[in-house]
Amino acid sequence: MNINVIHSFDLSLDEMKAIQQSLRQQIQITPYPGQPKDVAGVDLAYFPDDRRAVAVIVIMDYATQQIKETVYHIDEVVQEYVPGFLAFRELPLFLKAWEKLHYEPDLVFFDGNGMLHPERVGLATHASFFIGKPTIGIAKTHFIGEYPEPQKTQGSVEWIKDQGDVVGAVLRTQDGVKPIYVSVGNYIDLPSVLRLTQHFVGKESRIPEIVRQADLLTKQLRKQALAEEA
DNA sequence: GCGACAG
DNA sequence: ATCTTGTCGC
Questions:
Q1: Residue A75 contacts by C-beta under 8 Å, 6 or more apart in sequence?
Q2: Residue A43 annotated as binding site
Q3: CB under 8 A, 24+ apart: contacts of A197-205
Q4: Residues around strand C, C-beta < 7 Å
Q5: Taking burial as the number of CB atoms within 10 A of a residue's CB, which of A65, A73, A80, A105 is the most buried?
Q6: d(Cα A183, Cα A113) in Å, to the nearest integer?
Q7: What are its E.C. numbers (predicted)?
Q8: Which tens digits make up the pLDDT trace of A202-221?
Q9: Distances in Å between the alpha carbon of A24 and those of A12, A77, A102, A183?
Q10: Can you give the residue ranges of every domain in chain A?
């Protein structure tokens, strides 16, 4: 099965699930030694009409956390949101923005899950097969799996298990705040995911800085686009 | 059958 | 995700 069928408009749930099951067999979990040079953060924001969205990619220097490049793409959204199939809704827009990049990031953070997914092929995992880069999934709310409640202090971590597999981790990024849910996208392992994610957790935000910057820009560009149309 | 359900 | 102000709490 060709993964490029993702560009089709009318895949059935069974067809999408078949694609995920095919991709699952090709996941490669491996440590990510050392530090990446450039990392990317990806996020989307939807317009009020619910027909369009803006996809944003922010490139940041890993060591200094300085933003080196930002690209975006505004277009029609062709797939409705169905839990478990977010990739089919968001990847088309993301890929168009990806083509506009001048930098080639070594690692990419997505707003959503990686293997923390019923078929182990969430947004971050699915995307990795198109871009061929290590990916990480960062979700703000629980999706699947069971886990013990992490301690209330910053840095507390617990594994998330689903059907006997460790599929991700819950991470308390600040004292007393709701935790985030992190998982392997592809071409990386969970310990590396936690290490690289915590590098972007500052003092102020609950969300890793690389993802937060993409999120902020996404809403800023939507506001700008709406203003220009008025 | 009922509830849950990334963004 | 998005619609939205004030307000409870540290």
A1: A52, A53, A55, A92, A93, A96
A2: yes
A3: A197/A109, A197/A136, A197/A138, A197/A171, A198/A155, A198/A171, A198/A173, A199/A62, A200/A65, A200/A109, A201/A173, A201/A174, A205/A173, A205/A174
A4: A 44-46, 48, 111, 140, 218-219, 222
A5: A105
A6: 6
A7: 3.1.21.7
A8: 888 899 999 999 999 999 99
A9: 18, 25, 30, 14
A10: 30-145+185-229
Among protein residues, the one whose C-alpha sits closest to the C1' atom of B4 is A143
**CA pair distance A51, A47, nearest whole angstrom:** 7
Tokens of A57: 């990619």
Whole-structure pTM value? 0.96
Give the distance, in angstroms, between residue A137 CA and nucleotide B4 C1': 21
Q: CA-to-C1' distance for A130 and C6, Å? A: 45
Amino acid at the residue A95: L
Q: CA–C1' span, A93 to C8, in Å?
A: 39
Q: Per CATH, the architecture of A30-145+185-229 is what?
A: 2-Layer Sandwich (3.30)
